[in-house]
Amino acid sequence: MAQIFENLRRRMDSGKVLGWTAAIYVISQVSIAALLYPLDMGEFMEMQSTFSADVMAAILAHWQAEGLTQNFINHFYLDFLHPFLYGALLVSLMAGVFNRASLQSRWNIMFLAPVSAALMDLVENILHVSFVIDGGNITQTTALLAGLSSVIKWFLVVFSIIVIAAVFLSGKGVRRGEE
Q1: Could you give the CA distance from residue 33 to residue 51 in angstroms, rounded to a whole number?
Q2: Crossing angle for the helix pair 53-65 and 140-169, nearest 10 degrees?
Q3: Which of 10, 18, 133, 161 is deepest in the core (most CB within 10 A)?
């Protein structure tokens, strides 16, 4: 496992990887935002964080009544790719600052945070698609699982950003001559 992390660290610390994942991530994020724009963002965020089957069903019913369900469905065409993009971007940023700071390989375990965030996002997406396909799939258990997946995803993304920022801001994550 340690060798897998070391290879990941070496390969992801690349200007090309960082540049491409950042560019494609931004395009994807803007496109997803455009697709979701007609939806009430308060409801969308509530849907991502609720543990309640009743709330989940009510939001989807409201979107259905307003003719907005297709917007929600269409965003999944990009949102199933999106976790791979931000996961790779965060790993690339993390690898870069870790290498510039000469952090020991034991820090490589931190790569699990963005990778796990991406996996939680995929679980959340799968559950949300199942809810749209068949409202009968919205149970207290599946709503709880979707909500937990989303909350864990966001926690891990924020944690990853904090780790990257902390190493970078310590001055150790900056190449010599860039200080």
Answers
A1: 24
A2: 90
A3: 18
- Cβ partners under 8 Å of residue 151, min gap 6: 49
Q: Which residue has the tokens 């992801």?
A: 12
**Tokens 């909350």 -> residue:** 151
Within a domain: residue 176?
no
The mean pLDDT of the chain is: 93
At 86-115, the pLDDT tens digits run 999 999 999 999 999 999 999 999 999 999
Is the pLDDT score of 177 beyond 80? Answer: no
CA-to-CA distance for 150 and 46, rounded, in angstroms? 11
Tokens of 143: 């709503």
Please check whether residue 42 lies inside any domain of the structure. yes
Is the pTM higher than 0.85?
yes
Structural domain boundaries, residue 91? 2-169
Check whether 173 has a pLDDT greater than 70: no
The DSSP output letter for 68 is -
- Does residue 178 belong to any structural domain of this protein? no
Q: Mean per-residue pLDDT for 73-89? A: 96
| Residues 128 and 46 sit within 8 Å (Cβ to Cβ) | no
Question: For residues 128 and 100, is the Cβ–Cβ distance under 8 A?
Answer: no
